Amino acid sequence: MKLKSIKYIVPVLCFSTLTNSCLKSDFEIVSRSEGEADFTHYVSVGNSLTQGYQDGGLHNEKAQQSNSYPAIIARQMKMCNPDMDEFIQPLVSGNGSGFRILSTDSEGELTVLAPSDEGGMEADPSFDAWGEKRVKYNNLGVAGIAVWQIMGRNLQERIVNHATLGGVGLLGGEPLNPYGRFLNFGADPVSIGGGGETYNYIDKIKESDATFFTCWLGNNDVLGWTLNGGDPGEFSVAGIGIIETTPLTEVDEFREKYDSALVAFHNMGAKGVCATLPDVTSIPMVTTVNEAYLEVEELWITEGATGNVRLKTDEDMILLYGLESIQQNDKGLTQANPIEHIYVMDRDEMAIVQQRTAELNTVIRELAAKYDFGVVDMHQYLDDFASGFYLDGVEFSAKFVEGGVFSLDGVHPNTKGYAIIANFFIDAINEKYGSNIPKVNVNEYKGIIFPND
């Protein structure tokens, strides 16, 4: 995928920020405290954002996964509690799951290479056997997991969850989602009569023995549907029927299952903070491609609900991952050759997903208050990304590549972005529990990796 008008970015310094920083004493001695919290055994639960996923994969050749936001938080917590347990993550090796990179083409222009492209970073052979299921990990982040998958209320739900996350006898081969293979999900629920035992993600939370937790579950309950162009992604399994892989999770189901996670932490006496869901329609995957980007006056799109072909409006969004197909096939230039709906979030779908995100965030806030847990308002924070902001003297925004926050997949932050997120969590922890965890210097962390970096 060739990038349009992307340049090497020189950080823009804010003079007032630099001036104010000079007023701080270099010799200030701070006594670090956990406050009312206990960081002895910190556990993080969540999805790809928690796991440290970026650039379309899980990789660690430049400490990307080692600098997941929970790992950054854990290192800062240790300054308040030097005796806290080691924060253990299931680190990948080599190329990990495979990932996108920036390269230069024959004309010297920057281009994004997918793992399958010539010169791309394909999955490392070690990823097939990644993780040690007997290890008790602190970072329980699983890329792709949604709240509707963390527990099964009946046999069919348990079968679907196991097919997605566990070792699958029902479908054969590997689970549909390889990013949970470091955890032991036990036997196939269908063959449970053979003496095996099956586990849900919620069981991993219950076994965690956390004294403190962070919870950032829920993004995939709206994101998957969005990235699939407002489609729930159905396929059929014999004996089960239709399985939806990317539904918009119903509010009542979300409430019940999210509550089960917080009950588990509450029952073990843990304290912690929960993060709200960002507006998935404001990320580069959704906002980058438009008429100006493609240098055309108008674009023809296919609507989702009706299949109607019409001109794109400013309220309709084109998904970034469809850019290559659009450019190679002249999609959208004429009514007879519109952009396929899988690459489009039309205005009605945009309104639907924004409304569902607001509803799920209300649930998160209500349940956090019910158990007296803190809240990190990631929805508001990531809105700030969209409008642009200065931090530690450097300007950031949600622009693809140029903005300095998001990685090459247009969905997940880069390492610098994860450091920013870690600071947001630290602020919420300090405010809720009277701790004084020090924040990190964001500019000490890597952003996008350019060729020859």
From TrEMBL:
What SUPFAM superfamilies does this protein map onto? SGNH hydrolase
Which Gene3D superfamilies would you find in this protein's record?
A: SGNH hydrolase
Which InterPro entries does the UniProt entry name for this protein? Ester_Hydrolysis_Enzymes (IPR051532), GDSL (IPR001087), SGNH_hydro_sf (IPR036514)
GO-annotated molecular function: phosphatidylcholine lysophospholipase activity
PANTHER family linked: SGNH HYDROLASE-TYPE ESTERASE DOMAIN-CONTAINING PROTEIN, THIOESTERASE 1/PROTEASE 1/LYSOPHOSPHOLIPASE L1
Q: What is this protein called?
A: SGNH/GDSL hydrolase family protein
What's the source species for this entry? Parvicella tangerina
